[in-house]
Design goal:
The chain is an alpha+beta fold. It has helices at residues 66-71, 76-99, 135-141, 147-166, 217-220, 228-249, 253-260, 273-294, 299-311, 335-349, and strands at 22-23, 27-33, 45-51, 57-63, 108-115, 122-129, 133-134, 169-170, 179-182, 185-188, 195-196.
C-alpha cells in the first residue's frame, strides 16, 4: 500500500519515510535535509543525512517513484519508465565520474535500491560526500571580501568543468547553487541535467536541460551550433562565466543580459538571434565594464573582466579562447582559464593581490 501523510490531505511515497532505516553497506539514514528553494532536477527526490559505518556523514538523494502512481492516467507507465531510466543514467554518470577520480566533481559514495516494508515500490538512492554548503551561502557568510577564496573557487570550477569535458560529460546546469563548498575547496555538483554518452535525462528538455534562468542567449533565441559537442561545451563555458560574474558582482550573466538588452530585441519579442546579436554583444560589454570596475585598479585583477568577455560571449561560435583556433588549438578548452585563475589565486593567497 502507498501511504499518505497521516492526515488524509497529502501523499507520501516510501522515499519520504526512510529516517532510521539501515541501508546496504553499513549506512544509516539520520534525518531529512530541506531541499534548496532554487534546486532543480528532473526527478522528484528527497534529501537525507546518512551515517556510514565509519561514522562518516554524507548526503543521500532518494528518488520517489510514487507520484505517477498517485496520479494514475494513461501516461503512468511511460512516466514511471522515464523516471527509472533517468535514475539509471544519473547513477551511471556519477559512478563514471567517481571512477575517473575527478577531484573537483562531487563524488558518489554509493548507489543502490531498497524495498521498505511499507510499500512494494522500490527506493533508489545515491549517496554523496556531504558539502558544507554552496557558494551562495559561503558568500553570504562573509563579513569581509575574501578575494583569495573567490579566485580559488573560480580555479576549482574551471578544473571541474575541464575534468567533465575530458570524460565527454557536459554539465549544462552550472550555477551558484551547484558549486558546492568542502573543507578542501569547491566542487561542481548536481549532474542530473548533464549529457553523458550522448544521452540526457528523459525527464528534462533535451534542447536545453538546465535551469532556463541561467540559459545562454543562443538557447533563448533557439540558435544552435551544428556540432553537438561544440554546442554543449560552449554552453558550459557561458555558465562558468556566469558563476565568475556572480562571485564578484552577486548577479548572474543571463539576468544581467536581460536587463540591458532593449525590449524589441529581447528573446520574448520574437527577434532572431542574428538580429539581436549586436545588442547582446553591447550588453555583454557593459556587464564586463561593470565587472572591471568591481575588480579595482590592479591590472591583473581587471583581466578577470576579459575572461568574462571570452567565456560569456553571446555568440557561441566566438566563445572561449579568442586566438585558439588561429593557433590550431581548441577555443573551448579550459586550460587557459585554469592557469589564469590559479595564478591570481596564488597571488591573493600570498598577500600580493587585493581589491584595495
Amino acid at each position: 500500500m502507498l501511504g499518505t501523510n497521516g492526515d488524509g490531505g497529502g501523499f507520501e511515497g516510501p522515499a519520504a519515510r526512510l529516517e532510521g532505516k539501515e541501508l546496504p553497506g553499513g549506512w544509516k539514514v539520520l534525518e531529512k535535509v530541506n531541499r534548496s528553494e532554487n534546486a532543480t532536477g528532473g526527478l522528484l527526490s528527497i534529501g537525507y543525512k546518512v551515517e556510514g559505518g565509519d561514522g562518516r556523514i554524507a548526503y543521500m538523494k532518494a528518488h520517489d517513484y510514487s507520484e505517477p502512481l498517485r496520479r494514475g492516467g494513461p501516461n503512468m507507465t511511460r512516466v514511471l519508465k522515464a523516471m527509472l531510466q533517468a535514475f539509471l543514467l544519473e547513477k551511471d554518470l556519477n559512478e563514471h565520474c567517481a571512477d575517473a577520480r575527478m577531484s573537483r566533481v562531487t563524488r558518489v559514495l554509493a548507489a543502490e535500491g531498497i524495498h521498505t516494508e511499507e510499500s512494494e515500490l522500490p527506493v533508489d538512492y545515491l549517496i554523496f560526500e556531504l558539502a558544507e554548503g554552496d557558494v551562495r551561502h559561503r558568500l553570504g557568510d562573509f563579513e569581509e571580501n575574501d578575494l583569495a577564496w573567490k579566485l580559488r573557487t573560480c580555479h576549482h570550477i574551471a578544473v571541474g568543468v575541464d575534468q567533465l569535458h575530458s570524460a565527454e560529460v557536459f554539465h549544462q546546469d552550472l550555477k551558484p547553487s551547484n558549486i558546492l563548498v568542502f573543507t578542501d575547496g569547491s566542487k561542481v555538483g548536481d549532474l542530473g541535467s548533464a549529457w553523458f554518452r550522448n544521452q540526457v535525462s528523459p525527464l528534462v528538455d533535451p534542447s536545453y536541460s538546465g535551469d532556463k534562468d541561467y540559459a545562454p542567449p543562443e538557447c533563448q533565441y533557439h540558435f544552435e551550433i551544428p556540432d553537438v559537442k561544440a554546442r554543449l561545451r560552449a554552453r558550459d563555458l557561458y555558465m562558468f562565466g556566469g558563476v565568475v560574474l556572480f562571485m564578484f558582482c552577486q548577479t548572474d550573466a543571463t539576468a544581467a543580459l536581460q536587463r540591458k538588452v532593449p525590449d524589441k530585441h529581447d528573446y520574448e519579442s520574437g527577434a532572431s538571434f542574428e538580429d539581436a546579436l549586436p545588442h547582446l554583444i553591447e550588453a555583454t560589454e557593459q556587464i564586463a565594464e561593470d565587472l572591471e570596475d568591481t575588480m579595482g585598479s590592479d591590472p591583473k585583477l581587471r583581466e578577470v573582466a576579459d575572461r568574462y568577455r571570452e567565456l560569456c560571449h553571446p555568440d557561441p561560435r566566438l566563445r572561449g579562447h579568442p586566438t585558439a583556433k588561429k593557433r590550431g588549438g581548441d577555443r573551448y578548452a579550459l586550460n587557459r582559464y585554469i592557469s589564469f585563475f590559479d595564478h591570481l589565486a596564488r597571488l591573493a593567497e600570498g598577500g600580493s593581490l587585493s581589491l584595495e
